[in-house]
Write a structure and sequence with these properties.
With about 575 residues, this protein is α+β, with helices and mostly antiparallel strands. About 35% of the residues lie in helices and about 15% in strands. It has 20 helices and 20 strands. The strands form 5 sheets. The chain has a 7-stranded antiparallel sheet, covered by helices on one side. Strands 7-8-13-14-18-19 form a 6-stranded antiparallel sheet. It has a 3-stranded mixed sheet with strand order 15-16-17, covered by helices on one side. A hairpin with a 7-residue loop joins strand 15 and strand 16. The longest helix has 19 residues. The protein is globular. The chain starts with 12 loop residues before the first helix and ends in a 9-residue tail after the last strand. The N terminus and C terminus are likely disordered.
Length: about 575
């Protein structure tokens, strides 16, 4: 995995023109040149899932933007060049740290069920789930939160106008990007659904099929929507012509959106979930993400074994058994906190962890069936993540999604907005599996205005004058990937090891340890098999972690992007050209 040590600080012509225009009218909030370097305490860094998105963020930093402005640029660019994972038609969670006062918050920009949604909306006359309606087309789409998050970040935390932070993404949408091998793989997975909708077929396929390598994908309609968003902020997307286009197209194709659904959408700032393990402070996502709670439960259970100082040969077994128990609690208890009562205090108590730890045997696994009734939660596998720190110490960990690759497959004509299929993250019917064979509970049942439970786990770790910023896509496996990354960090391993460590996962059901193919014949696999675990290869390597490490005392910053993906990490200043892997 190559680490980028420098970004060529060229500024897009659009950014310069916009910044000059704002300066001339007295509306600019920062100088025209990148004067932030005079106040730098350490290098800035960005790690994201695509080199062009990393470049967009660094362009905004070079204009004097802070980490929050850069986050807008990276997220918007990812929505253009990695449309399989995120975009204005989706949502996500943004973990923020403001350096000037240490304030930390999570922006909950998760999608919401439309006002006309109902608990049985995907059931046929026999009470069976009609899976296609929850996966493909506008019937599968919840109200997106991404545009609201971009506007909120600019208004509440950014140093630059939203229109400037969006400018690199607008340019990418207008000029286009080249199709990569990863794009072709994900498009192949959803080719049939994409072929069903003409706007999607015309934009993201070529002559109705997966585009060849190097094919240029341009999105001028999406560029126009982003220009409107930059000019008018929240109202530019959720009210007026754009909102009317969205609702009109969704309703014409059988969906249930109303204009009021869009007008009512707001980002919610939630207090991050904070836990501790062996002196480390772990700051992660609260509900409706399950990430922070499940992470905390796993670490609490591990702390019951020799205060968390565990023999490396035993750690995989204990990890799996802790995962099994925490995921069972996730399935039973977690949902949107605005709709269900979550027993957070009990779930995170050390007494509960002690009870769970006592049920773990060191020589063999516990059959999941012994823990309780078979319930679990649905989750789409393809999201995106990026991590950012600026020179002043502001930082962002953001995990964004449209659920399945290319979401619902439905692009709203004239807007370029590819809609999510996050409604499948609800439990369409308790006890019935979703697209991934996962079964849901009542806590995550569909209700109007409700946000589906998620595993997205953007995380900060603070220990020994060090800071880690990390996260990954990967559906229900996100939490365990972040867990393994944190364990690497706390063991003193370099950031490259966090993103590349071999991955294994247990989620209560199915009752198997899911591993990457490379793990199957490894010493790690043998440690698990000798204790009676059943391993199952889940195909090619999963996840796409992007992480940053900052050592406060020395000021040293390092960053890395997952070698399984095509992302890029960058540290400024430096002299080498932007590189990717």
């Amino acid at each position: 995995m190559a680490e980028i040590l420098l970004f060529r600080r060229t500024v897009t012509r659009r950014c310069l023109l916009l910044l000059l225009a704002f300066s001339a009218t007295g509306l600019a909030t920062t100088p025209l040149t990148a004067t932030a370097s005079a106040q730098e305490t350490h290098p800035a860094a960005i790690a994201s899932a695509h080199p062009l998105a990393t470049e967009a963020g660094l362009t905004i930093l070079s204009l004097g933007g802070n980490a929050f402005d850069a986050a807008i640029a990276v997220a918007a660019a990812l929505g253009v060049v990695e449309p399989a994972g995120s975009g204005l038609g989706g949502g996500g969670f943004w973990l923020l740290h403001r350096a000037e006062d240490g304030y930390q918050t999570m922006l909950d920009a998760r999608e919401r069920a439309p006002g006309r949604a109902s608990a049985d909306m995907y059931l046929d006359s026999h009470g069976d789930v009609v899976r296609g309606h929850a996966i493909n087309g506008p019937t599968a789409a919840a109200i997106p939160g991404q545009a609201a998050a971009l506007a909120h970040l600019a208004e509440q935390y950014g140093a630059l106008p939203l229109s400037i932070s969006l400018a690199p993404a607008i340019q990418l949408a207008e000029e286009g990007f080249e199709v990569s091998a990863r794009y072709r793989m994900l498009a192949g997975f959803r080719e049939s659904a994409m072929q069903d909708f003409a706007p999607t077929r015309d934009i993201f396929l070529h002559e109705g099929e997966v585009p060849p390598l190097g094919h240029i994908i341009r999105q001028p309609d999406l560029a126009r929507v982003m220009i409107q968003l930059g000019r008018e902020g929240h109202a530019g997307f959720y009210e007026g012509p754009v909102a009317q286009q969205l609702v009109r197209a969704v309703r014409a194709a059988g969906g249930i959106w109303d204009l009021q659904d869009l007008k009512d959408y707001r980002v919610i700032e939630r207090e991050p979930l904070v836990s501790e393990f062996r002196g480390a402070r772990i700051v992660s996502a609260p509900p409706p993400s399950s990430g922070g709670i499940v992470l905390a439960q796993i670490f609490n259970i591990l702390a019951e074994f020799n205060d968390g100082d565990i023999d490396p040969a035993l750690l995989p077994h204990l990890n799996v058994e802790a995962m099994r128990r925490a995921y069972y609690d996730r399935a039973v208890h977690l949902g949107d906190p605005d709709f269900v009562d979550i027993p957070v205090q009990r779930l995170l108590s050390q007494d509960h962890a002690r009870d769970l730890a006592r049920s773990i045997r060191l020589d063999q696994p516990t059959p999941s069936a012994e823990l309780g009734q078979p319930v679990d939660q649905p989750e789409g596998p393809h999201t995106t993540h990026f991590s950012i720190i600026d020179a002043q110490g502001n930082r962002v960990a953001a995990t964004l999604s449209i659920n399945l690759p290319f979401g619902s497959g439905f692009t709203v004509p004239g807007t370029g907005i590819l809609l999510n299929n996050e409604m499948d993250d609800f439990s369409a019917k308790p006890g019935k599996p979703n697209a991934y064979g996962l079964v849901g509970s009542e806590a995550n049942a569909i209700a109007p205005g409700k946000r589906p439970l998620s595993s997205m786990t953007p995380t900060f770790v603070e220990w020994d004058d060090q800071v880690a910023i990390l996260g990954t896509p990967g559906g229900s496996r996100i939490i365990t990937m972040v867990l393994l990354g944190i364990q690497q960090a706390l063991a003193g391993e370099p950031v490259a090891a966090w993103v590349s460590t071999p991955r294994y996962h247990h989620q209560y059901l199915p009752d198997v340890v899911q591993v990457e193919p490379e793990v199957m014949d490894s010493p790690l696999a043998k440690e698990l098999e000798v204790r009676g675990h059943t391993l199952e290869s889940v195909g090619r390597g999963y996840g796409d972690m992007h992480a940053i490490h900052w050592h406060r005392e020395s000021g040293a910053v390092s960053a890395a992007s997952d070698p399984r993906g095509e992302g890029a990490s960058a540290i400024t200043p430096g002299r080498d050209p932007l590189s990717a892997h």
